[in-house]
Amino acid sequence: MMTKKNERGKCPFRDLQDCREKCVLYRKGMRFKEGSLEPIPFEECAINIIADNLEVMHGRTISLQQEVGDAKNIMALKILVDVGTNQPEHLDMLQRHIRNILSPPDPAKQIKG
Q: Is 20 domain-assigned?
């Protein structure tokens, strides 16, 4: 998630003064983080809330696209194996791909120096 340098709860339209309840864009409520049922109270400008929600949606979209791509690759390789192309490298590719999805490689080992 991206973070902004200015403080939370500051109005982006009033030279970063504290947000006020009189403002039309002022919001007060609760947030819930993924995987947690514990509420997090917030009071801030609706613009900041919208930006946070867009960032979360963007992250979810990227994850979903990765999952769909992995499923597509597995299905395509499985079809090649089922059709009986008699190509052992297709079966090897399918097994390797499934292994990578179930246990992704360690990023520390992938760093090229």
A: no
Note the pLDDT tens digit of each residue in 15-55: 767 777 788 888 888 888 777 888 888 888 888 888 888 99
Q: Is residue 82 part of a domain?
A: yes
Cβ neighbours for 70, distance < 8 A, ≥ 6 positions apart? 97, 101
Contact criterion met (CB below 8 Å) for 107 and 87: no
Angle, CA 109 vertex, CA 106 and CA 112 arms, to 5°: 135
| Residue 55 C-alpha from the chain's centroid | 8
Residue 58 in domain: yes
Q: Return the number of other C-beta atoms located less than 10 Å from residue 24's C-beta.
A: 5
In a domain, 59, yes or no: yes
**pTM for this entry:** 0.55
Number of domains forming the structure of the chain: 1
